[in-house]
Amino acid sequence: MTPYYAVIFTSILYTTTKGYEKMAQQMEELAKKQSGFLGISSARNDIGITVSYWNNEQAILDWKANVDHQLAQKLGREKWYASYKIEIARVERTYEFSKKIKAL
Amino acid sequence: MTPYYAVIFTSILYTTTKGYEKMAQQMEELAKKQSGFLGISSARNDIGITVSYWNNEQAILDWKANVDHQLAQKLGREKWYASYKIEIARVERTYEFSKKIKAL
Q1: Domain for residue B99, yes or no?
Q2: Distance between CA atoms of A54 and A89, rounded to whole angstroms?
Q3: Contact B51, B89 (CB under 8 A)
Q4: Rounded to whole angstroms, how far apart are CA atoms A76 and B60?
Q5: Kind and range of the H or E run holding A84
Q6: Which phi and psi angles does B79 have, rounded to 5°?
Q7: Closest Cα to residue B37, out of B10, B62, B64, B55?
Q8: How many domains does chain B have?
Q9: Do the domain assignments include residue A52?
């Protein structure tokens, strides 16, 4: 399956608001409809890390340019994020472990 | 600074135990002493995502082979992890945003 692409989005919020959570959920639903989307994982406590997975770099550029996503990015910078970092990475190798009780 | 390497470690625990947290902290301290280590970010709620950053692939292989880390990996598979996935990725582009109030 490799190589594929990962977008690592690391963020710090001012506060977690209802508005933010709703928008994050909407964006996840929208990303899933994009061509080339492979999957997404998120976790948050002090910082948030969201990793989205894509078939190729063009799919990432298309998602970045999506009009509704552009608006969400603008709102995020104005209202919710103290800071964030986005890293575009080419996944070259993977390892998996599972006790086959509960899958990732 | 690109290209550099990211190890994306996504995991599901049976339960969060004191033993796990202590080991995770020890491994983070140990990783920081490795040659080629650049940084680490972690977040956990339902799933855990830890991204560690490295200068090159050799640094990642050296860390994987570290004897204390090998023991921690073994304990993790036996005691703490229901499942995990490790992805080795080459970071090619980055974007950053900050309101310069609280840095990542």
Answers
A1: no
A2: 10
A3: no
A4: 34
A5: strand A81-98
A6: -115, -35
A7: B55
A8: 1
A9: yes
Report chain B residues whose CB lies below 8 A from the CB of A89: 6, 89-92
Instruction: Choose the closest CB to A49 out of B12, B41, B87.
Output: B41
Given the structure tokens 């399956």, which residue do they identify? Answer: A1
How far is it, in rounded angstroms, from Cα A59 to Cα A14? 30
Structure tokens at B88: 């080795």
DSSP letter, residue A59: H
Query: Which of A46, A45, A44, A66 lies closest to A54, judged by CA?
Result: A66
Average pLDDT, chain A: 93
The answer to whether B10 contacts A102, with C-beta atoms less than 8 Å apart, is no
Mutate to test the interface with A, among B11, B58, B95, B100 (most CBs of A within 10 A): B95
- Domain containing residue B70: 4-91
Q: Report residue B1's pLDDT band, with 50, 70 and 90 as the boundaries.
A: confident
**Structural domain contains residue A30:** yes
CATH number of the domain within which A54 lies: 3.30.70.100
A 25-44: CB under 8 A from B: 41-44
A58 CB-near residues (< 8 Å, 6+ apart): A36
pLDDT of residue B99: 87
